Amino acid sequence: MITIFIITAAVIIIYLAYPLWLRIIMSSPHTENHDKKEIKSVSVILLSYNGKQYLGGKINFLLNELSAFTDHELIVVDDHSGDGSDEVLRGFEGMEHVRIIFNDKHHGIPYSMNLGVLLARSETVVFCDQRQDLSAGILASIVIPLQDGQTGAVSGCISSFDKLKKCSLIRRHENFLKSMESRTGRLVGVYGPFYAVRKECYAPIPGHIILDDLYLSLKILASKRIVIREGCCIYDENFSLLYDYKRARRYLSGLIQILKEKSLVGNLSPGLRIMLVWHKYLRLVIPALLFLCYISIGLSVTRGTGYMVAFAAMTLLVLMSLVPGRVMPRFRLKNLSRMNILYFMAFIEIFFIDIFTKRKTRHA
């Protein structure tokens, strides 16, 4: 049991040491290209799918933001919504600078992104999701780093505060890591809800890819810089309400899928591979180790009162973490504990499905 605890503690410490390593590699500052060109043309691609309640407000907001540019367009790609989104979108058809595309069936995000870029006139493309609120002036700000020819993409920043002004410590920690990565010019993954890309750097995304934002980021990082604009704020729903098992499983499946894209990871520099594994994958080992610690304590409850109290406390924490977010949203440790539990459950499901699939293939 002691060995398991030592290994778990060591992995957690190594993961938490990631910012220290980033600070070390920040000792070689990036030299910016001072021959910058002001960006006057922008194409915004709004990805629409079953978000009827968001579309009207989001389109009007984006059109207002786009008015700051001499040449601009808004391309809305609706991925065959079934909630009446088409009724809202048809109200914007025929408007100047607006183009509405209705997919013939539900193809998925990569298809809509690829189509939007293919239709875009501008060399500066901004991707936008429908659900999140955005800070004023975000569009004019997000494209500024692209004036440097060495920068291929710029990410907006999901605020630590949600739409109801409640702070998430998990989002704050993630923003801290991304801020430090950005200073090295090697941001490992843009925030998908809002980011800008130099069109020449865009690589068509295969339809089977789950984490399209991470896939595209790694493609761009092979030759260009990616940074984050912390003042370009994205406001999402409360983390405890948004993060569920389906989301955890999708994210974990997407990360496993990225590892299988050998040419994608193979084109990265050794330093970028270290950052990718350290930031994205090492933390996924922690839930499994914590589960082993929990089982070890449970098997040791007969050894003394201390073990019994520790096991009871951990069990209570697990149960509280699984309570729906609307019932107990203020419990600070809940989100962190819940996230680890969901990742572990998703890992077990994916692991056994993978084994079952392989066995079924062998016997076919």
Poorly predicted residue ranges: none
Mean pLDDT: 90
What percent strand? 5-15%
What is the helix/strand order? HHEHEHEHEEHEHEHEHHHHHHH
Question: What is the share of helical residues?
Answer: 40-55%
> Tally of extended strands?
8
Q: Main sheet: which strands, in order across?
A: 3-2-1-4-7-6-8-5
Radius of gyration: 22 Å
Please identify the structural class as seen in this structure: alpha/beta
| Oligomeric state of shown chains | single chain
What is the name of the CATH class of one domain?
Alpha Beta
Highlighted features:
364 residues; globular; 8-stranded mixed β-sheet; alpha/beta; Spore Coat Polysaccharide Biosynthesis Protein SpsA, Chain A
Commentary on this structure:
Helix 1 (2-16) packs antiparallel against helix 13, helix 10 (245-260) packs across helix 15 (332-363) and helix 13 (286-298) crosses helix 15 (332-363). This protein has a domain at 23-241: Alpha-Beta Complex (Spore Coat Polysaccharide Biosynthesis Protein SpsA, Chain A). It is α/β, with parallel strands linked by helices and 364 residues long. Helix 3 (52-66) links the parallel strand 1 and strand 2 (71-78). The protein contains 15 helices and eight strands. The longest helix has 32 residues, at 332-363. An eight-stranded mixed β-sheet has the order 3-2-1-4-7-6-8-5, sandwiched between helices.
